[in-house]
Amino acid sequence: MDRMELRLTGSGGQGVILATIILAEAALYSGKNAVQSQSYGPEARGGMCKAEVIISEDEIGFTKVMKPTFLLALTQESLNKFGATVDENCVIMMDDSLVEIETKAKNVIKAPILATAREKVGKAFTANIVAVGAINKALGLASFENLKEAVMGHIPAGTEEINIKALEMGNDLIK
Amino acid sequence: MTRKVLMQGNEAVVEGAIKGGMRFFAGYPITPSTEIAEMAALKLPRVGGRFIQMEDEIASMAAVLGASAVGTKTMTATSGPGFSLKQENLGYGCMTELPCVVVNVQRSGPSTGLPTSPSQGDVMQAKWGTHGDHPVIALSPSSVEETYHLTIRCFNLAEKYRTPVILLMDEIVGHLREGVSIPENEQVDIIERKLKERPDVFHLPYHVCEGEYVPRWHLTGYDVRYNITGLAHGVDGFPTNNNEIAGALVTRLVEKINHGYEDIVTFEEYMLDDADMMVVCYGGTARSVKTAVDMARAQGIKVGMFRAITVWPSPEKELKALSKKIKSVIVAEHNYGQYSLEVQRIIERPVGFVGKVDGTVITPDEVLAKIKEGR
Amino acid sequence: MASKLIDKYMREDHLPHIWCPGCGHGILMRNVAKAIDNLGINQEKVCLVSGIGCAARAAGYMDFQTMHTTHGRAIAFATGVKMARPDLEVIVIAGDGDIAAIGGNHLIHAARRNINITVIVFNNDIYGMTGGQYSPTTPTGDYGTTAPYGNLDRPFDIGLLAAAAGASYSAKGTCYHVPQTIKLIEDGIKHKGFALIDCLGVCPTYYGRKNKKGGAVEMLTRQKENMITAEQAYKLPIHERESKVILGKIAENDFPEFTEEYQKIIDRLVKQNG
Questions:
Q1: DSSP state of B313
Q2: Residue A40 and residue B291: Cβ atoms within 8 Å?
Q3: Which strands form B5-8's sheet, in the order they lie side by side?
Q4: Residues near C69 by beta carbon (within 8 Å), at least 6 away in sequence
Q5: Contacting subunits of A (3+ beta carbon pairs below 8 A)
Q6: What does each C-alpha distance from B356 to B360, B366, C25 come to in angstroms?
Q7: Whole-model pTM?
């Protein structure tokens, strides 16, 4: 497996950092190497937020994303900023509420992540878990079981059911 | 094999520290090392240890030494400005030979600088930060898993050589999450302070046994009462103005570390066997360098990496030996050229340099460009 | 013949001390030894911590577990000692510059934290070790080598400062009032929580000479004559209080003690984890 560089972007509070942690953990559980990092400072508490995870079968040297192979955008601002700089091999997953932009990426997936969380799961805060389900399905990073285990390790007691529902619905968004 | 656990570098420090025997932590919040204090506050009381958030950086360093002086394994953690504030008491720790671990998750400076951005601008401060001649041991990890193991090693070295040991981290590793396999207890070597055996020297805190360099320890609160002071002192721990005694003390302090060179100094060699060029680095920078070496090798360039894991004392012998067979040497570090001076001193010729002071990470492409330029 | 107190609590090999003739620190050091003796505390369980300055040298002369640390930081070092070994009786001896200028931050926070440390201040209104510079307790208008035209600063009342910062015990003693001061130190050591005894010292060499206050005898006599109780003092406005010598307790409260409260957390967590 080649080095996969995932960049997840949105606004502070949408939980994109946790999403990268869960993906990294699920990849580890599946026997792969993973490194996760995030932007620090005021942007992590509102404003634009960016978190990255690199997954590879081989030892991971450089810890930052050089050329993203995947971009998640949950806000228009983050899509505009990060979508413009990717190359043609990058897969973009954008929330379907956003307006498409001009990009070199050939594969752009429009997924109703925010709407699924808000309307189908019934809790807007589960958008990051919906995204995790969709990303994992689209990229084939880890088994669903490993992913589920990673999610369970990070959610408050009492929210298990709703988060698993979010994960499954995210998974089902990608055919 | 146990499954790897995803952990942040700063978190691995605390996990390693507790495994290494830490039972007291004093700290003060500062980016990008704060998670270490947070984790210590959470985890220490669970193992019967104690955490305290002191009123400032100076006080945290002092509290750590106070706890060490009564026999506890202790640690504090900080970043740039806080590391500056700790320096006076760090020197007190060197002078009074009180073991402790001081973590510095380096950030861009000088002054407040770029608090969330990586840097290695404190590498010379780690060596010369406190006034006067003094011994220094500083280790620098390049991955989260290594952070875990090096923290344990810091505690072991601190106890063995009775001196503060610096874990010189950088934001690259401190804020990185990566997999760590946690070893079983029996797989980990833990070193305890060597205790005095001869009752006739129990009352002499700085008595050194024949053939040894490090004074042995006697537990506080039992049988004897002794004094320790940051003033020049004799084996009895009391202040002296005797120049001969003062000179012998500083000499022994420095020599105890020099004497332990083979034990203390560790390093990583990567692709150096057939190399005619090497990139010297330490800490998180190695991540960029290793990738750059792989890229260069793919293009047929015979380059390798030498990574100092023990930054101080510097791996002088190894670098000298390598420099005899490898003609071109580049140093990569996140500063304006600090360790490169040390490497130049050791190999006695100029080195190529890749550095950065804008708060961004040196990329593999930048290292590769220098490698190509250096050929 | 040396007194029993000297035999038992002083390191005679390291005497005579470095203090000047007429210095009040010897009296105060003896008071500390006497208070500990009266309480019958095991000598090995006493950890005496000091910083830098004339007063701080007491640590080297007194036969306990002693730590002579860095300027201003004695309370911070002592906090580490107490946290690691709550079984030890931790006592800090410090001068006015050490405790209220460079170490002022540690003083107020230890008081606020109410950690079981006893701080005894040898307060002689001057930096003696460095040769007579004005300190945080030098009265306004008095002279020091760095106040050749008179001190512009207003002085701290260290006892009141500690009490205001939350010290659960704060008292004031003097060199002249020996039995009373010993009792105040005793009560401070016995007290569970942060205790401070601000003891008015005598520095004839620098403070006395610079300010034409006479020799040690005159300075001690003044302590005797100007004495009012702490209770009387705090009813006086500060400018009237300045010329007085105050004796007695300012605060004595039963607040939760830091290491005990921390131990409760440990006990709860260790129990939970089996």
A1: S
A2: no
A3: A107-111, A91-95, A70-73, A4-11, A48-56, A33-38, B177-180, B5-8
A4: B62, B65, B66, B92, B230, C49, C50, C51, C52, C77
A5: B
A6: 7, 10, 55
A7: 0.96
Instruction: For chain B, give the mean pLDDT.
Output: 96
Partner residue facing B179 (CB), from A34, A37, A66 = A34
Q: Where do the structural domains in chain A lie, given as residue ranges?
A: 4-173
> Which two structure tokens, joined as six digits, stand for C38?
């009266």
- By Cβ distance, the residue of A24, A41, A64 closest to B177 is A24
Is some CB atom of chain B closer than 8 A to the CB atom of C194? no
**What is the C-alpha separation between A27 and C87, in angstroms, rounded?**
49
Probe site for chain A from B3, B5, B6, B295 (most A CB atoms < 10 A): B6
Tell me the one-letter amino acid at A159.
Answer: T
How big is the A-B interface in CB pairs under 8 Å?
56
> Looking at the partner chain, which of C68, C84, C270 has a beta carbon nearest the beta carbon of B72?
C84
DSSP B335-356: SSSSHHHHHHHHHTS--EEEE-
Nearest CA of chain B to the CA of A123: how many Å? 27
- Per-residue pLDDT band for C236 (boundaries 50, 70, 90) equals confident
Tell me if chain B has a CB within 8 Å of the CB of C49: yes
ipTM: 0.96
Q: Does the structural domain B5-187 have CATH classification 3.40.50.970?
A: yes
Classify the C-alpha dihedral C21-C22-C28-C34 as positive or negative.
Answer: positive
CATH among 3.10.580.10, 3.40.50.150, 3.40.50.970, 3.40.50.170 for C21-272:
3.40.50.970
Question: What confidence tens digit (pLDDT) does each residue in C198-208 have?
Answer: 999 999 999 99
Q: How many residues does chain C have?
A: 274
Cis peptide before C256 (omega within 30 of 0): no
Q: Each residue of B63-122: pLDDT tens digit? A: 999 999 999 999 999 999 999 999 999 999 999 999 999 999 999 999 999 998 999 999
Inform me whether the C-beta atom of residue B46 falls under 8 Å from chain A C-beta atoms.
no
Map out the domains of chain C as residue ranges. Answer: 21-272
Do A66 and B364 lie within an 8 Å CB cutoff? yes
Instruction: Give domain B268-374's CATH number out of 3.10.20.30, 3.40.800.10, 3.40.50.300, 3.40.50.920.
Output: 3.40.50.920
A40/B288 CB distance under 8 A: no
Report the distance separating Cα B229 and Cα B243, nearest Å.
16
Name the closest residue on chain A to residue B288, using Cα atoms.
A62
If you measure CA to CA, which chain C residue comes closest to B70? C81
Q: What is the mean pLDDT of residues A109-134?
A: 97
Interface of B with A in 158-197 (CB under 8 A): 172, 175-179
- What is the enclosing helix (H) or strand (E) of C266? helix C258-272
Q: Does B235 touch chain A (CB under 8 A)?
A: no
Over residues B19-29, mean pLDDT: 98
Euclidean distance between the first and the last CA atom of chain C, given in angstroms as a whole number? 59
Range A4-173 classified under CATH 3.40.920.10:
yes
**Cβ–Cβ under 8 Å, residues B188 and B19:** yes
